[in-house]
Amino acid sequence: MKPGLYYDISFESYVKIDAVNNSTLKILSDQSPAHCRQYMDEGRPETQSLGFGRATDCYILEPALFEKQYVVGPDCRRGTNEWKDFEASVGPEMTILKPDEMDAIISIYNQVSKSQAMRLLEGGTAQVVAIWKDKKTDLLCKSRWDYFREDIPMITDLKTTRSAKPDEFARDVYKFGYYQQAAFYVEGYKNVVSDKHDCCFAIFAVEKVPPYVCCAYELGAKTLEAGRIAFRRALDLYAKCLEKDHWPAYEEKITMLDMPAWALTAAGLGPERMM
Q1: Among 127, 141, 101, CA closest to 235
Q2: Distance CA 88, CA 123 (A)
Q3: Which of 29, 42, 51, 218 is deepest in the core (most CB within 10 A)?
Q4: Are strands 200-207 and 214-218 parallel, antiparallel or unpaired?
């Protein structure tokens, strides 16, 4: 696909676009090139958490599409005969939610919709796809923004989380690589929209357990710069692996390994023996 912004690409079509995305780079950063290659070949295993987050995003951002793609199943365990009968009746194109999952999604929507931060999800467009060519590596890159307001400009990402409390969610921004994702998305904006104006990146964090508290955060300049360093390092490594068709796993040579200092102390090795 040619570089630019696209406003009508489904998630299924987006996945098939042959370009580097942040999920690929995150696996490269967090694990190894070998894990990255596996992800590229096989895709990401579906989990209940991923499916719930995707359904929540769709209900809030694309309600008309939600009606076409999701249906509520019977109040029973998945895998039972009753569940299998229902699956057969609706067909493979529909994603089935359990009643308690649907109740949680509606409760989350009710909290989000009455929040002052809801203005982040107004006046713009949901699920905008950016395609660009990285100037350093010449690789085609892609990202899919949950919500984009061109007038600010701001990219907003919805995240369901265990805790939206500021200090805890700040740790999650690092732990789950949201800072790298943010910088990668902003890089896309600079390449296909404008490199003369800064683009803000906000996260709408919604707790996935009652009372479904939600908070909105704009990531600061230092966090975005850290994210730029992270994705740049990963993208350069990806280009190197691709060029040589070599996707190593961790350190290939034999290296010395000791337990962390706290573990050595717990095991009875005092500070005087660790010098």
Answers
A1: 141
A2: 40
A3: 29
A4: antiparallel
pLDDT digits (tens, 9 = 90+) for 65-115: 999 999 999 999 999 999 999 999 998 889 999 999 999 999 999 998 988
For the record, the structure tokens of 244 come out as 């040589």
Q: What confidence tens digit (pLDDT) does each residue in 28-61 have? A: 999 999 999 999 998 887 788 889 999 999 999 9
Domain count, the chain: 1
- Rounded to 5 degrees, φ, ψ at 132 are -150, 160
Look up residue 146 and give its DSSP letter: E
Residue keyed to tokens 């040589």:
244
Query: For the chain, what is the radius of gyration of the CA atoms?
Result: 21
Q: How far is it, in rounded angstroms, from Cα 64 to Cα 56?
A: 13
Average pLDDT across the chain, whole number: 93
Q: What gap in Å lies between CA 33 and CA 116, rounded to an integer?
A: 42
**Which CATH number do you get for residue 199?**
3.90.320.10
Contact 143, 22 (CB under 8 A): yes
> Coil, strand or helix: which one is 161?
strand
Return the amino acid letter for 183: A
Contact 129, 2 (CB under 8 A): no
Domain assignment of residue 118, given as a range = 4-273
Q: How far apart are CA 250 and CA 45, in angstroms?
A: 21
